[in-house]
Amino acid sequence: MSLRKLALMGFSAFALVLVILVVGLNASHQPREAWPTTLVLSSTRGPLAPDTLANGAVGHLNLLVPGFTHCPDICPLSLARLQMVWQTLDGSKRERIHPLFLTLDPARDTLPVLTRYLSAFSLPVTGVRLPDEGDSRLAEFTQRLGIQYHVRPQSSQHMQGHRDAYMVDHSVAIFVLDDQGRLRDTLPLSQTPAQLADRLALLLKDVSSAPLAEGAS
Fold it and tell me: Do 147 and 171 contact (CB within 8 A), yes or no?
């Protein structure tokens, strides 16, 4: 997907929404468990736990962006910003960073839908999902991460009564998790790609030098 085309989709509106949705997010965190290694998510690359993409190696980071494929603008712009960050990283850093897109709309975003949607980006991003209907794990997982989201019915007359007549309002940020499932940072996408890349470089140093937590789960 053309970055120029995405940028022209209305970046000023994107920035405004970022200001609204990122308010209240902490700029950084003390490492805390957010994704237990016992919790396996379905993904476009098979079952996924925090250390799966790293093949058990330490010193890796998972960059999780929440969203949904029916999002008209914010989600594609968020992924485009992450794509810009990815392009600033050298190969050694890319090998230790795993972009993830967590759907907050699992009813519509099946794994095939996520695969098609994410293929539009020049980014090795893995789509991940948890079932929602009759299952509390999505709400529990997002709460542990600090992701806020709300399903909002669409009021337009032509959409009333339609099964897809809803949108999902949600936090806009990059949630950085290490290979032990601990939340390391929450990065606002209002930062420039260079700023985000610099912060990721520091976090990679941190996870490379940190001792393995005892009893990590």
Answer: yes
